């Protein structure tokens, strides 16, 4: 995957956990950056209370937001500030967090497939977009090994 690096954000940016009382700021950034799906305040607060909302900070400014369900390692939302898109931040985020599952809109399925995810659900029609549940191939291979061990009575 080719990236165009226009700044040093991919090398210098760092992650910070978002606190539940920051949900209004986070919601405004999702809207300002035109995230394609609706991200509600309750979703942000619930995820933040469980440690599942992060921001990527570069030179004192938020340049990316991540919301995920910590219990199942499911990525719900990834949004990068428009002037930092195509710098490789999405790939860095995905490598850093190593999500097992992703809820992806139809237009982002190819991106996640290139990162090793595959569809495991039937498509679901949301308010505006078709969404898919995707799983990382490494988890599938682990599940296959676990099933074989269980069938052979080793576990």
- Helices, by number, come to 6
Distance between the termini: 40 Å
Q: Give the % helix.
A: 25-40%
Biggest sheet layout: 8 strands, mixed
Strand coverage percent: 25-35%
Structural class: alpha+beta
Rg from C-alpha positions?
A: 17 Å
Low-confidence stretches: none
Order of helices and strands: HEHHEEEHEHEEEH
Molecular shape = globular
What's the structural blueprint in terms of helices and strands?
Blueprint: H1 9-12, E1 14-17, H2 23-32, H3 41-49, E2 53-58, E3 61-69, E4 74-80, H4 89-97, E5 101-105, H5 109-114, E6 117-119, E7 124-125, E8 130-136, H6 137-151
Helix pairs in contact: 2-3
Structure description:
The structure is a single chain. The chain has 155 residues and is of the alpha+beta class. It has helices at 9-12, 23-32, 41-49, 89-97, 109-114, 137-151; strands at residues 14-17, 53-58, 61-69, 74-80, 101-105, 117-119, 124-125, 130-136. β7 (124-125) and β8 (130-136) form a beta hairpin. The longest helix has 15 residues, at 137-151. The relative contact order is 0.14.
